[in-house]
Target: RING-type domain-containing protein
Amino acid sequence: MKMSGNGCPPNYRSCDLRGMPLAKLKNIQAKLREEIEEVEIVLYQETANKCMKCEEKNRSVTLVPCNHYVVCDTCATTQRECPYCQTPVTPKA
Ligand SMILES: [Zn+2]
Ligand SMILES: [Zn+2]
Model:
């Protein structure tokens, strides 16, 4: 994952880290943990809205008959089964 802009962690490599004071290393570790937590929260939220099939478009279709709201309208037309529960879906007319 490529990140840019403010507040993003620089690319630490073990050769840069070796010899650093423990306090500084722990500080870096704590900062990176915070970054990871933020990424995980956003990733979770984004995943919750994205189509399970293409992961690009937002979910917009409720599959029949399982009623799972997991795919976008594009994928819904080509899905033969629900990507969440594998129930065969009734194609939309
Ligand atoms: Zn899709
Ligand atoms: Zn389903």
About this structure: The chain has three helices and two strands. The first strand starts at residue 61 and ends at 62.
